[in-house]
UniProtKB/TrEMBL annotation:
<dbReference type="InterPro" id="IPR018191">
    <property type="entry name" value="4-OT"/>
</dbReference>
<protein>
    <recommendedName>
        <fullName>Tautomerase</fullName>
        <ecNumber>5.3.2.-</ecNumber>
    </recommendedName>
</protein>
<dbReference type="InterPro" id="IPR004370">
    <property type="entry name" value="4-OT-like_dom"/>
</dbReference>
<dbReference type="InterPro" id="IPR014347">
    <property type="entry name" value="Tautomerase/MIF_sf"/>
</dbReference>
<dbReference type="Pfam" id="PF01361">
    <property type="entry name" value="Tautomerase"/>
</dbReference>
<comment type="similarity">
    <text>Belongs to the 4-oxalocrotonate tautomerase family.</text>
</comment>
<keyword id="KW-0413">Isomerase</keyword>
<feature type="domain" description="4-oxalocrotonate tautomerase-like">
    <location>
        <begin position="2"/>
        <end position="60"/>
    </location>
</feature>
Length: 66
């Protein structure tokens, strides 16, 4: 049973997440030759202030760029 944990910066729509779940499931079915009902996908939204790149939070980068 494949279990995939996908972390995303917050802000994706419900529709985008549904599309991601479908596409990743389809990829697992094809690559691993498993049934779709055995694929588990966990999506984790990460707040922009809780994710850093190059020593600065994404939130701070976005605020500076605005």
């Amino acid at each position: 049973m494949p279990i995939l944990n996908i972390a995303l910066i917050e802000g994706r729509s419900k529709e985008q997440k549904e599309a991601l779940i479908k596409e990743v499931t389809d990829a697992c079915v094809k690559a691993l030759e498993v049934k779709p009902e055995t694929v588990r996908i966990l999506l984790q939204d990460i707040a922009t202030q809780d994710f850093g790149v190059a020593g600065e939070s994404v939130q701070a980068k976005r605020e500076r760029s605005a």
